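Good morning C.,

I know you're traveling, so I'll keep this short. The sequence:
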Amino acid sequence: MQKYLPLSFVFLLFTYFANAQYKGILVDGLFNDWPAEAIRFNDPKNDAQLADIEHLSVWNDSLNLYLRLKLGKELNLQETPINIYIDTDNNPATGLSFQGLGIDFSYFFGSRRGIFQGKTVFHNHVGHISAPTHTSNEFEIVFSRHAIPDNINKLFPGNTIKFILREEVELGDVIPDNGAITYTFNSNPQPVYTPVEITREDTSLLRLMSYNVLRDRPMSSLFQIRFQRIIKTIQPDIIAFNEFYNSSANEVKQLMDNTLPLGNTDGWYAVKQGLDLVTLSKYPVKQSWQVLPGHNISATLIDLPAHFAKDLLVINAHFRCCAGGSQARQQEADAVIAFIRDARTPGGNIDLPKNTPFILMGDLNLVTQKQQLLTLLNGDIQDSVNFGKSFKPDWDTTDLADLISYHSDAPMSYTWYDDRSDFAPGRLDYMIYSNSVMQPEKAFTLETANMSPARLKKYELLADDARISDHLPKAADFRLEKKITIGLQEKSSTGNIKVYPNPVLQNLYINLPENTSSAQIKITDAAGRTMRTLHSKNTEITLQTGDLKPGLYFIQIITGDNIYSRKIVKE
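The tokens, ready to paste straight into the viewer:
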């Protein structure tokens, strides 16, 4: 599946993975999965000074209460004085008297805390999650229906609630303008989320992993066994580690050699750049660069084995933390795009062969301005004086893709969780990649806390293993261009064929060389799912695409000993 956000007549691509059978709400800050049956309450536009609430949608399943909040302006929810007041038992005689309601529970999103029956509570007491973590004009908000905030009383004791959402500023907005919203929980069953198979099913794919390990914790005897169980379960090929502050590259290499021995003389290859970045690879390292002096961004060119057509450039980054680091994060995003431009064009510090895959991985701390993410996706550089002009960063002059992966056992996308913080869980760890030349086939974030006993036993994990850090490990299997060996000659998957029109609306035309005797054609979506297959002996081929959803697709054409790859956009 794919989801797109329009921006200046282009698409920013979000690749995300969830079981196709799952029909519930995926908590990711995207909204195409919201059911049409969700109850929607509208509010007049331009009637407030700050957020200007436009509408609020409400839904539930057997586990959670979901709110979808649309604002007239882009704001950071966790820094904006928007509050919700809920009469959770629909009884005005209980709780705090407020506008005719008995408020049992209130939550102050900008202050990142709430009050339940007179006592202060935080996100972990009420199962609160919101997305996205950066500025937006639309948010998903979750509260657990099974929460017991004071260990005695249920957060939602009944089936009907009444609530008010309002901005606590002068001339602030409120929904509804009069009275309160009444919502009765539906009895629809919890959608079945089929867990992701963590074991590698296709070893011809390249498994990448990103992991912030929280200040060298795997080096401690208190946490090392849990770390080793995680690594042995995921079995990565290349890892971008963050927060190995006090460990050398050689020490991390030894840890990995002991944890996941490769059975060869060299073992793992390790490179450390910046304060805390260590990039580990099963394959040799050709070269490494520091992307921005004084900042934690490194780039490493990995020498992939002979059956891949190209090497892989891994940009390992740990962007500046927290609200106060917003300006530095924008500099870091600008610097990454400038480095990619340098890599794609002759001269400068790095010259990559055309169509070399590249990926940015790490804890990017995108918790304030959305522009930082937009820059990384569409190449919109903000500081052109120091980092040059904006440009489309992928090899085909389009945007890069943001891989949104969900927990292996739950429809959640957050990668950071800390009970001790007042910030709600959020997606802080990213994989942003050149989707013109590499395609993910499977991705997941490992959160052992929501795995069943049977699943934990299957993978020889314990429920608290992933909580050795406040960040969760994120992994993905990528399909890269292969080399085809014919005798002593090698051919890569490029060729002179015509695929048009692009973008396409109804019919896609493919013209092959006149000497082509037959061709096998496959169209896949950005998640790697096959949408069309065709065997043809013609050199002029027409494919009907009218029933495909708008978005990005990949065409693979095999003719004899050659493989051709093209990327198309379906309008």
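Safe travels,
E.
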